[in-house]
Amino acid sequence: MLSLVLATSNAPSLYRDKRDWLRLYESQLTEGIPAPRELAAETDEVLDDHLTRIKHAQAALQERLGSVRPDALVVIGYDDGVMFNRVQVPQFCTYTGAEMTGSSAIAALGEAVEDHKVTLKCNPEMAWEIHRELIDREFDMSYMSVQNPQGRPEWGASSAFLYPGASFLDGLDIPLIPVLINCRVDPMPSGGRCLDFGTALGQILDGLPQKFAVMAVGGLSHDPNGARAGWVDERLDRFVMDRAVRRGNAQRLRQMFDLESDAIQGGTGQIRTWLAAAAAAESVKARGQIIDYIPSYRAITGLGFAAWTV
Amino acid sequence: MPIGFGIGVSHGPGMYLKTESDWNRAWELLSLDRGVPQPASVELEDGPKLREYISRIDAGHAELKRQFDLYDPDICIIIGGDQNEMFDRSNVPQLMFFLGEREKAEYPGGPMPAKGQPYSPRMSNLPPMDIDIDVEFSKWLLDKLVKQEGFDIAFSYEAKPLARGHGLSHAFGNPASYLFEGNNTPTVIIYENTFDAPSLSAKRCYDLGAAIARLTRHDPRKIAIVGSGGLNHDPGGKRSGWIDEPMDRWFLEQLAQGNGRATQALYTFDSDTMVAGTGETRAWITTAGAMEEMGSRATILDYMPVAKGVTGLGLAYWLTDQQEHAVAAE
């Protein structure tokens, strides 16, 4: 049974105080790209307001998980360059290990890997069942049952799982089933493929006896260290949230990655995880609600938070 | 020209053993030493019979090589699987393109392990061969398959064997060892999960081949496609030496009739007969999908259900009509 679908952005700023925001901001810029005008409007008061809203949004995600109490949470994330580099980059990958370990330390803040160790409890049995069902439905899933990170091994696993795992998921005691979508290295799956994946996932989970929740991690528009570093495509973000969340029409976004464009490069490619989650939600006719959307120029990301309830 | 020539060929290590005593040794290691009760047909596999098999395999390899050289492809796509060589449990793909420019592969036909030593596919002591990859074409094809055709294909720029292998898996090196003798045809290396359950459906494999053929239809170069592995076998397993001959013969008959779509029925249910080495038959199915998209039917060169070789050994090729006329005109 699929009982709840969530989606959250994953900028490092979400997990640190205001005093760290400036250092994080500077670490994600690209030389020669001026900041947009909106940055100047982000005064101290505005930042305080953003931080309060972020805390409320994360509390809302936590509260929904707490009240539904799923047997497992399928986290649809992405690799950030830790797990895969040029060696064996999968398009879709099921994590079937018993635990996922790594560090949620943020290198840009000079944090030491050892000081932020994370261990996420997973559920191999359920992961394998979902994995088998996805293959049966012609999704060519890779699997990972032990960690052997090829990109930046000292971090262990992608921040897509470790950051939420170390923060608002911590203490909920819900086993995770991490699933990765390639959002980083070309060629990546199309929007249509991600929607179809989400639909299949939703149907599979809804047909199983256990209670599942799904959470997409990533997005919305951001391009750290890229051609549009610091710029937030609010128009794109609002369109995505409006169609995929508010109107329950994620299919409308089918073609958004079927072209070359600066607008869909870098971290914005992680919107694929939202497409998958939205499609899973629509497969069980869940109703979407935008929890909040904060176009944060200091965090260089369109920060989105959403939930779909059955 | 688009894809014009295809090969489906088993690659079992036994095919490269040249003496009866080596064959009997392999049989001991894979079946007898593991206590698997053997089918009655082993009684018929005496010295003369084994010598006959060795001679038929050599003739089959020679004919495939002859047809390959006649076609003279500019690019050779090779579909093959992995057996704990490239992939360990940290990242097992269903489909993967290798995108390095060149990689080594070992020659088959190595010495049999001594008494008491465990069996593993023995590689020759010859220095490994170099296999060239047409990276530009591979990337182009990968891009189209992922973005347009919706196949979720992993890719790797480095051959970094995470398990016990060296270089490319034996599924690629074994057919290359004779097909690429005297030439160094640039390849597209496509891993297909043929071994590690759960794996691709037969339909998925067929559809992949058909998509490859469609996408390359307007390429000006001559392209060959090789499906390496199969047919029915369970080496060292519960049914080592038992060959589902009816399934293999039915399978080959479908390909000979140009009815490869019917092979979708394989792997639709779990069974001792569908697992282990039999999973490699997927590589043939992808080749059939490509060749049938080009309107071709298979020529079955030979089929030998060798109990002591624990494998239903098949050798086949496809030519498109245009190619058949070209060959006839020579």
Automatic annotation (TrEMBL), chain A:
One of its GO terms (molecular function) is protocatechuate 4,5-dioxygenase activity. InterPro entries: Xdiol_dOase_suB. It is an enzyme of class 1 (oxidoreductase). Its EC number is 1.13.11.8. Residues 59-292 form the Extradiol ring-cleavage dioxygenase class III enzyme subunit B domain. SUPFAM superfamilies: LigB-like. Keywords: Oxidoreductase. It comes from the Bacteria. This is Protocatechuate 4,5-dioxygenase beta chain. It comes from Sphingomonas vulcanisoli.
